[in-house]
Amino acid sequence: MSYGDLRAVDGVTFDVAEGEFFGILGPNGAGKTTTLEIAEGLRKPDAGSVSLLGQPAWPRNVDLLPRIGVQLQASAFFEKLTAREQLETFGSLYGVRSARVDEMLELVGLTDKADTQEAKLSGGQRQRLSIACALVHDPDIVFLDEPTAALDPQARRNLWDVLREVQSKGKTIVYTTHYLDEAEVLCDRVAIMDNGKILAMDAPARLVRDLDAATRVFLERGALSVETARNLPGADSVTEDELSLVISTRTAAPLLAALAESGTLDGLQVRTATLEDVFLDLTGREYRA
Q1: Which fold has domain 2-209?
Q2: Are 164 and 171 in contact, with CB atoms under 8 Å apart?
Q3: For burial by CB atoms within 10 Å, which of 35, 118, 209, 240 has the most?
Q4: Biological process GO terms, please (predicted)?
Q5: Closest of 196, 233, 200 to residue 217, by C-alpha
Q6: What are the tens digits of pLDDT across the range 62-83?
Q7: 196 with 213: CB under 8 angstroms?
Q8: What does each C-alpha distance from 179 to 24, 174, 183, 204 come to in angstroms?
């Protein structure tokens, strides 16, 4: 998929299993949203094809609409309608009963805002309303484009519970996010994209394991001298800053045993590699506009 000279999506291929929680990750401009829009049937690919629930996603397939839910990055609502009225309007397109609207308001924590006009909701509340609109007709597949953007930490964690509940009912979720800790917790598999290509795709735990990154052990500054730390079994490298002494190791067990024997476990922290380390290793650390 190209926009002029920019190739936004370049030879991307993936399958998503029924009931799977699949994440698409990547820096700004990686092609995540375009990939999602092609999968949803909102954009015609320049080449290739998309099969959605066994049917072609393009040309726009009206038979698929009751079976998919879509939450776009930029949501548009009907003016002057309350949260409940927004959901009732979306639901009426699919013959949804009023009780289902109440269920969705409760699911996304907006019951107390049911009679509030959408324009008077906070950014996070509008985001949750958008997700409720995508779910109100009980679709088989839900596409969510950065669903937790603009949410505070508490609301973000609450939405994780919502998404887990949706998946527990056998639904398939395909989403994009910039929150790598979130993807690591929620996703069965992730695809990491950059420059329109998929660089890696697997379960988060496997991607982290394949990185073979060092474990870092943090001690309070002054707990050990740098020289002593360098002579500990398993210590590969040692650095020190104003707050911490950091020991990198690929054999953590003998190192931790030696620290325990020397009585220097107070304040110790152990940090293993995460999906963020995989992401940065694949896409680099330079600033993306």
Answers
A1: Rossmann fold (3.40.50)
A2: no
A3: 35
A4: response to antibiotic
A5: 233
A6: 889 999 999 987 778 888 999 9
A7: no
A8: 11, 15, 7, 13
